[in-house]
């Protein structure tokens, strides 16, 4: 029969990175097509089930944190406040270090915690080079409370606190480049990643795990929210792909602040190619798109410039770190 | 003041140190695993001392020099729930800035120990002493202890670990002492040896282990309390608070057996045995009050002091026992309770008035923003309380250092 | 001491020593992914991109979603490079 002769290809190499069980219950209450759900299930399959994960009030909390004595997953977790997430993770790793307990603490937060209310202690933990992995899943706003604007909400996006009206037309400010800010702390590892490029994400997770032996590792993962953004749930991965291909969300990494592009897009598509899939951008005019495009180009230019610094400035192979002086804490 | 240390003092372990240094030394003696440090006047010396101990190798702890008080509390909370012994210190605005985490620590039943160096907190800028920070955070679910002297600061911090980490309690404990009056006051303090401190705390090691968060264990903390689950945990918390009263008394007795110093547990009663009237106070003011009481006693006037050492949980039973059958009691507050004219501690005692067999209560507000509670002020408070006992007309609330407030027309 | 009924500990601890909590998310579905085994080339994209990670290899034939939990988001159909998966209304399966 034909079926026995059908052409087979090598299965996706992403599967090779999934070395551990998915510790989550199969039925958890994330919306259909949720980027966060894929990310949450992906992380422990790559990093192992012995991570300690911290979670804050957000869409992740109803699943990360238990209900009374029962859990949704088998990971060790720490439920914490948005204000102090990185400080909580700090307390965990410091005690584990004192007690000689091997650990991989993953401080898992949305952009509301990472870029807004918890940025102070995120920056503080990075400055102190605390040895844990901080992952920001960026859905560009407060999706759990019903889609409000955050520091990473892009120009032109409508949210319930940046609605479209006669006077104001969506968010009229640019989004903050959180990952770049974090890289400028010269921490051992910073990276951006997204769900369309899962092999890249897996590699970066493993690099982060290795880097946290030297200190702070920060991962900024672009994770669309079809419900909050007004997108077809089937398009979650396609949105990520287009975000990369338009340079709206470039993929890069930085070791000790030295930036390297991990994927360069030869002919970037106009940003409209990305926004057209998402209802929160549906009111953007051509002029608005120009503003957004300028912003994307500008950000990318700065990033590109920084990524070639090495050749321009002859950066040393290894950036100066505290470890070089033999300080252990 | 005598600031030299005699040979005899050296032999007995007495050193002249500030309240802040006493707190830092006590923390060192408790051997915490993790300490979070952030400066604020008048607490700064505590974390400076600890940083010195850490730098010199005298203190083997993880020292987290956080970027704000909120992170101080959040980091020690997590370290505590992971299994560590922890310490931090703050004051006024710092305590307020960590308040969300203060509440979280209590609800998570993390046995955090900290000192709070009492200072004012309103938007009227006042780098000065007062207990408004303690009052503003009193319903956080923490155990609050209050020290009168530098020696008591040291002793209370050690006792706080016994109380916080006791398997029957598992609650955070905050040791309060007055900023400026105690924080910077140098007094002779008997400092236990490390062996003595270890011995006092070693009882904890014989108890069952509390639940802690270790990697790889299918266990998590910070679960949602859903309906009955939430109520169950709140009730457990309240029950542990109630147990902590008797526990604190017994820890005080054990401390006395080992160190020869007893402070009386929940309350210290000073010359109250046959008293007609008493003042109720807390913190550093009690030294002055005791001096004035001695003078009154010398002239045959039967007056005493009830000193609050445990403020949360409120020592209701002990207080009723101490006050019942007296003619009158004057309650001295170093803070305000907005919505009421009387001071906060006075208002709390009013709730038990019917159980006191006729003891009448008066409210005195003094010592706010470093206004000294002088001997003259104390004498005025005692006199007014005696007037009430003798049936004279006395205003319910008196601002001792601001007579303008007592004008009925002004109210 | 108060009894343990909703929690096994003094504080808000949950554990996963017993069965995990689970929601019948399959009930949410309005469309179900139907795989044309003929077209499947075993690339596994449907499996890696499935947000609930319930797409599994079905023997030597093709990949298939666990319909007990599949929410019907349609990502597998969208991402399949051979268009081997189509989303079919649940009404068609009611008998």
Describe the structure.
The complex is a heterotrimer of chains A (329), B (411) and C (95). Chain A is α/β, with parallel strands linked by helices. Chain A is built from 14 helices and 8 strands. Chain A has an 8-stranded mixed β-sheet, with helices on both faces. In chain A, a hairpin with a 2-residue loop joins strand 7 and strand 8. Chain A starts with a helix and ends in a 16-residue tail after the last helix. Chain B is of the alpha/beta class and 411 residues long. The model of chain B has no long low-confidence stretch (mean pLDDT 95). Chain B folds into 2 domains: 253 residues, Rossmann fold; 144 residues, Rossmann fold, CATH 3.40.50. Chain B has a 7-stranded mixed β-sheet, sandwiched between helices. Chain B has a 6-stranded mixed β-sheet with strand order 10-12-11-14-15-16, with helices on both faces. By secondary structure, chain C is α+β, with helices and mostly antiparallel strands. Chain C has a domain of 55 residues: Alpha-Beta Plaits, CATH 3.30.70. Chain C is 11% helix and 22% strand. Chain C has 2 helices and 5 strands; from the N terminus they run ββαββαβ. A two-stranded antiparallel ribbon of chain C has the order 2-5. In chain C, strands 3-4 form a two-stranded antiparallel ribbon. Chain C starts with 12 loop residues before the first strand and ends in a 6-residue tail after the last strand. The mean pLDDT of chain C is 93. Chains in contact: A-B, A-C, B-C. At the A-C interface, helix 3 and helix 11 of A face strand 1, helix 1 and helix 2 of C. Strand 2 of chain A pairs parallel with strand 9 of chain B, so a sheet runs across the interface.
Q: Greatest chain-chain interface?
A: A-C, 49 and 48 residues
- Tell me the number of strands of chain A: 8
Helix and strand element order of chain A? HHHEHEHEHHEHEHEHHEEHHH
Please give the alpha-carbon distance between the first and last residues of chain C. 56 Å
Order of helices and strands of chain C: EEHEEHE
What shape does the CA trace of chain C take?
Answer: elongated
What is the level 1 CATH name of chain A? Alpha Beta
Strand order of the largest sheet of chain C: 2-5
Distance from N terminus to C terminus of chain A (CA atoms, Å) equals 67 Å
Structural class of chain A: alpha/beta
Brief characterization of the structure:
The complex is a heterotrimer of chains A (about 325), B (about 400) and C (about 100). Chain A is α/β, with parallel strands linked by helices.
């Amino acid at each position: 029969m034909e079926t026995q002769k059908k052409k087979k290809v090598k299965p996706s190499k992403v599967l090779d990175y999934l070395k551990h069980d998915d510790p989550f219950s199969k039925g958890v209450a994330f919306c259909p097509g949720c980027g966060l759900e894929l990310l949450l299930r992906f992380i422990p399959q790559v990093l192992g089930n012995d991570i300690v994960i911290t979670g804050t009030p957000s869409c992740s909390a109803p699943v990360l944190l238990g209900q009374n004595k029962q859990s949704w997953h088998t990971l060790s977790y720490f439920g914490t406040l948005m204000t102090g997430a990185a400080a909580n993770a700090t307390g965990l790793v410091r005690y584990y270090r004192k007690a000689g307990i091997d650990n991989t603490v993953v401080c898992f937060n949305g952009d509301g915690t990472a870029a807004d209310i918890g940025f102070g202690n995120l920056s503080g933990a990075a400055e102190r080079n605390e040895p844990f992995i901080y992952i920001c899943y960026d859905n560009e706003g407060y999706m759990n409370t019903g889609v409000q604007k955050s520091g990473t909400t892009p120009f032109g996006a409508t949210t319930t606190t940046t609605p479209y009206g006669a006077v104001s037309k969506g968010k009229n400010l640019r989004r903050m480049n959180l990952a770049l800010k974090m890289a400028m702390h010269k921490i051992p590892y910073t990276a951006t990643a997204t769900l369309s490029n899962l092999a890249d994400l897996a590699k970066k997770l493993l690099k982060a795990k290795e880097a946290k032996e030297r200190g702070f590792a920060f991962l900024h993962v672009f994770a669309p929210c079809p419900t909050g953004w007004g997108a077809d749930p089937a398009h979650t991965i396609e949105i990520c792909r287009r975000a990369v291909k338009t340079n709206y969300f470039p993929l890069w990494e930085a070791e000790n602040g030295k930036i390297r592009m991990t994927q360069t897009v030869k002919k970037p598509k106009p940003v409209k190619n990305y926004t057209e899939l998402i209802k929160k951008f549906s009111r953007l005019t051509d002029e608005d798109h120009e503003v957004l495009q300028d912003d994307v180009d500008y950000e990318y230019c700065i990033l590109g410039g920084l990524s070639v610094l090495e050749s321009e400035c002859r950066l040393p192979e290894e950036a100066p770190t505290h470890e070089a002086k033999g300080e252990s804490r | 003041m005598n600031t030299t240390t005699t040979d005899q003092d050296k032999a007995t372990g007495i050193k002249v140190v500030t309240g802040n240094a006493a707190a830092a030394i006590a923390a060192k003696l408790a051997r915490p695993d993790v300490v979070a440090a952030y400066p604020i006047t008048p607490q700064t010396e505590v974390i400076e001392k600890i940083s010195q101990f850490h730098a010199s190798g005298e203190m083997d702890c993880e020292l987290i020099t956080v970027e704000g008080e909120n992170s101080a509390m959040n980091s020690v909370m997590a370290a505590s729930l992971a299994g560590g012994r922890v310490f931090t210190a703050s004051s006024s605005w710092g305590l307020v800035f960590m308040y969300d985490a203060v509440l979280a620590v209590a609800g998570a039943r993390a046995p955090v120990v900290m000192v709070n160096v009492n200072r004012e907190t309103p938007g009227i800028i006042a780098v000065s002493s007062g207990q408004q920070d303690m009052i503003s955070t009193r319903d956080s679910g923490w155990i609050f202890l209050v020290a009168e002297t530098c020696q008591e600061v040291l002793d209370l911090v050690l006792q706080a670990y016994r109380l916080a980490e006791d398997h029957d309690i598992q609650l955070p404990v905050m040791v309060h002492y007055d900023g400026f009056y105690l924080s910077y006051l140098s007094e002779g303090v008997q400092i236990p040896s490390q062996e003595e401190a270890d011995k006092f705390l070693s009882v904890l090691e014989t108890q069952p282990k509390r639940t802690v968060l270790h990697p790889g264990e299918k266990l998590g903390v910070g679960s949602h309390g859903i309906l009955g689950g939430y109520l169950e945990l709140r009730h457990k918390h309240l029950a542990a608070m109630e147990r902590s009263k008797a526990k604190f008394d017994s820890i005080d007795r054990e401390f006395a057996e080992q160190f020869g110093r007893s402070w009386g547990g929940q309350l210290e009663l000073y010359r109250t045995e046959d008293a007609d009237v008493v003042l109720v106070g807390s913190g550093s003011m009690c030294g002055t009050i005791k001096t004035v009481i001695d003078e009154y006693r010398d002239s045959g006037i039967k007056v005493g002091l009830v000193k609050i050492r445990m403020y949360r949980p409120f020592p209701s039973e002990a207080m009723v026992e101490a006050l019942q059958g007296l003619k009158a009691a004057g309650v001295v507050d170093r803070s305000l309770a907005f919505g009421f004219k009387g001071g906060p501690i006075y208002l709390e005692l009013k709730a038990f008035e019917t159980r006191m067999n006729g003891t009448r209560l008066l409210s005195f507000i003094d010592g706010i923003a470093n206004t000294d509670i002088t001997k003259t002020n104390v004498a005025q408070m005692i006199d007014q309380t005696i007037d009430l006992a003798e049936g004279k007309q006395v205003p319910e609330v008196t601002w001792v250092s601001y007579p303008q407030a007592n004008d009925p027309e002004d109210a | 001491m108060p009894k343990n009924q909703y929690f096994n500990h003094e504080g808000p601890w949950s554990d996963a020593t017993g069965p995990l909590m689970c929601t019948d998310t399959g009930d949410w579905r309005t469309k179900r992914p139907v795989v044309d085994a003929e077209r499947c080339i075993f690339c596994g994209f449907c499996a890696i991109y499935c947000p609930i990670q319930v797409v599994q290899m079905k023997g030597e034939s093709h990949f298939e979603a666990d319909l007990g939990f599949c929410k019907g988001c349609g990502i597998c159909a969208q991402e399949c490079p051979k268009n081997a998966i189509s989303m079919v209304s649940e009404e068609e399966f009611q008998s």
